[in-house]
Amino acid sequence: MQLIVDALFGAGLARDLTGDARALIEAMDAHPAPVVAIDLPSGLDGDSGAVRGAAPSAMLTVTFARKKPAHLFAPAYVGDVVVADIGIADAIVAQLRPRLFESAPALWRDLFPWPARDAHKYARGHAVVWGGAQMTGAARLAAHAAARIGAGLVTISAPRDVWSIYALWRADILVEPRDELGDWKRTLEDPRRNAVLIGPGAGLDQPLVAATEMADGKQLVLDADALTAFAGHALPRGALLTPHDGEFKRLFALDGADRLGSVRRAAAASACTLLLKGPATIIASPDGTAIVSTNGTPYLATAGTGDVLAGLCVGLLAQQVAPLVAGAIAAWLHGACARRVGPGLVAQDLSERLPAILADLACG
Ligand SMILES: NC(=O)C1=CN([C@@H]2O[C@H](COP(=O)(O)OP(=O)(O)OC[C@H]3O[C@@H](n4cnc5c(N)ncnc54)[C@H](O)[C@@H]3O)[C@@H](O)[C@H]2O)[C@@H](O)CC1
Ligand SMILES: Nc1ncnc2c1ncn2[C@@H]1O[C@H](COP(=O)(O)OP(=O)(O)O)[C@@H](O)[C@H]1O
């Protein structure tokens, strides 16, 4: 069997490839033999995963000590990744003060909000979701996810005209009618209602900026229409924002070759935690710490899955998980649910897979 071992360039590549090196890489990529790359497929920028001229698509990449950003951001080029131990101690890696982490249970298991033995529902937080008048499915998907991830109570504030659609749907979600913004304010008055999600199916004709301002002092997730509504307005500091690329670009500059840098800059500029969705979902806090979740599947590319993710986020915030960690846990669990469903996934399937995945996690 033929095998190509690519050991030309590694993670330190600092310029675009030209000449003989580029020709060699292109020949490698065109050859039918599988490529095993050492450290990184030659031509990938180690910090961003961007292709600097040309890079082969490896079947396997063997790297050392710790994954580099490109291993997370360029899955189509790195293939399967093996981290080989060559004797670099964890303490040495720690001295480098890494600011980028991969989301996996080992990273956050100790921070997961398992209920205390003497917990009562109010101790597990109360999430409030803004319901829209037309796309009622989005807020319902989010509310269900918030309840499944463990929020003690979940309330949807629903326009009175469609209140019955929400109220007749599930017995475990509370529904309060809303005629005008004053009703929303009253829904938020109880300080135990500590986490709020605005955006999924919210309606761009609605006063979403004012509704967000009324949630001042609560843990906040802004998604979908709420992000669109904030274009040109100062974002609420401390919120968790969960855009897809389209929504991100309405608020911030997105450099496709440097998604990590773009998300970090957006988080710093807005003083919010940013979660940019995609095959590699990036979560960054204003201080530059970033976590990447890569366990999603392309079957997530279907309507409503982002609404589920926003619901997981607000459910975790209700349980007093910090925004960066909440985003990292939510994104990983979202991917794990998608894997359990497999092909044929629709958004409603995701939350139904959570109990089994949480049970596995709880068992360690
Ligand atoms: N069951 C439901 O009721 C659902 C309601 N939804 C709601 O529908 C409203 C509109 O949501 P949209 O997501 O269509 O938002 P928008 O219509 O605001 O944005 C979509 C636009 O952004 C562009 N874009 C660029 N990169 C993208 C990416 N990676 N993913 C998606 N779009 C990208 C698209 O080309 C498109 O033009 C929101 O309120 C949303 O919550 C959707 O979430 C689907 C499910
Ligand atoms: N190719 C893909 N690989 C992995 N995850 C994906 C892929 N495409 C979409 N996703 C995930 O699916 C979700 C889609 O969210 P979003 O675009 O907000 O959809 P919606 O608004 O319909 O709910 C995000 O969590 C995103 O990361």
From TrEMBL:
<feature type="domain" description="YjeF N-terminal">
    <location>
        <begin position="1"/>
        <end position="94"/>
    </location>
</feature>
<keyword id="KW-0521">NADP</keyword>
<comment type="function">
    <text>Catalyzes the dehydration of the S-form of NAD(P)HX at the expense of ADP, which is converted to AMP. Together with NAD(P)HX epimerase, which catalyzes the epimerization of the S- and R-forms, the enzyme allows the repair of both epimers of NAD(P)HX, a damaged form of NAD(P)H that is a result of enzymatic or heat-dependent hydration.</text>
</comment>
<dbReference type="InterPro" id="IPR000631">
    <property type="entry name" value="CARKD"/>
</dbReference>
<feature type="binding site">
    <location>
        <position position="307"/>
    </location>
    <ligand>
        <name>(6S)-NADPHX</name>
    </ligand>
</feature>
<comment type="similarity">
    <text>In the N-terminal section; belongs to the NnrE/AIBP family.</text>
</comment>
<comment type="similarity">
    <text>In the C-terminal section; belongs to the NnrD/CARKD family.</text>
</comment>
<keyword id="KW-0067">ATP-binding</keyword>
<dbReference type="GO" id="GO:0046496">
    <property type="term" value="P:nicotinamide nucleotide metabolic process"/>
</dbReference>
<feature type="binding site">
    <location>
        <position position="201"/>
    </location>
    <ligand>
        <name>(6S)-NADPHX</name>
    </ligand>
</feature>
<feature type="binding site">
    <location>
        <begin position="277"/>
        <end position="281"/>
    </location>
    <ligand>
        <name>AMP</name>
    </ligand>
</feature>
<dbReference type="Pfam" id="PF03853">
    <property type="entry name" value="YjeF_N"/>
</dbReference>
<dbReference type="InterPro" id="IPR036652">
    <property type="entry name" value="YjeF_N_dom_sf"/>
</dbReference>
<keyword id="KW-0547">Nucleotide-binding</keyword>
<dbReference type="GO" id="GO:0052855">
    <property type="term" value="F:ADP-dependent NAD(P)H-hydrate dehydratase activity"/>
</dbReference>
<dbReference type="InterPro" id="IPR029056">
    <property type="entry name" value="Ribokinase-like"/>
</dbReference>
<comment type="subunit">
    <text>Homotetramer.</text>
</comment>
<feature type="binding site">
    <location>
        <position position="244"/>
    </location>
    <ligand>
        <name>(6S)-NADPHX</name>
    </ligand>
</feature>
<keyword id="KW-0520">NAD</keyword>
<comment type="function">
    <text>Bifunctional enzyme that catalyzes the epimerization of the S- and R-forms of NAD(P)HX and the dehydration of the S-form of NAD(P)HX at the expense of ADP, which is converted to AMP. This allows the repair of both epimers of NAD(P)HX, a damaged form of NAD(P)H that is a result of enzymatic or heat-dependent hydration.</text>
</comment>
<dbReference type="GO" id="GO:0005524">
    <property type="term" value="F:ATP binding"/>
</dbReference>
<protein>
    <recommendedName>
        <fullName>ADP-dependent (S)-NAD(P)H-hydrate dehydratase</fullName>
        <ecNumber>4.2.1.136</ecNumber>
    </recommendedName>
</protein>
<dbReference type="GO" id="GO:0110051">
    <property type="term" value="P:metabolite repair"/>
</dbReference>
<feature type="binding site">
    <location>
        <position position="138"/>
    </location>
    <ligand>
        <name>(6S)-NADPHX</name>
    </ligand>
</feature>
<dbReference type="GO" id="GO:0052856">
    <property type="term" value="F:NAD(P)HX epimerase activity"/>
</dbReference>
<dbReference type="InterPro" id="IPR004443">
    <property type="entry name" value="YjeF_N_dom"/>
</dbReference>
<feature type="domain" description="YjeF C-terminal">
    <location>
        <begin position="104"/>
        <end position="361"/>
    </location>
</feature>
<keyword id="KW-0456">Lyase</keyword>
<dbReference type="Pfam" id="PF01256">
    <property type="entry name" value="Carb_kinase"/>
</dbReference>
<feature type="binding site">
    <location>
        <position position="306"/>
    </location>
    <ligand>
        <name>AMP</name>
    </ligand>
</feature>
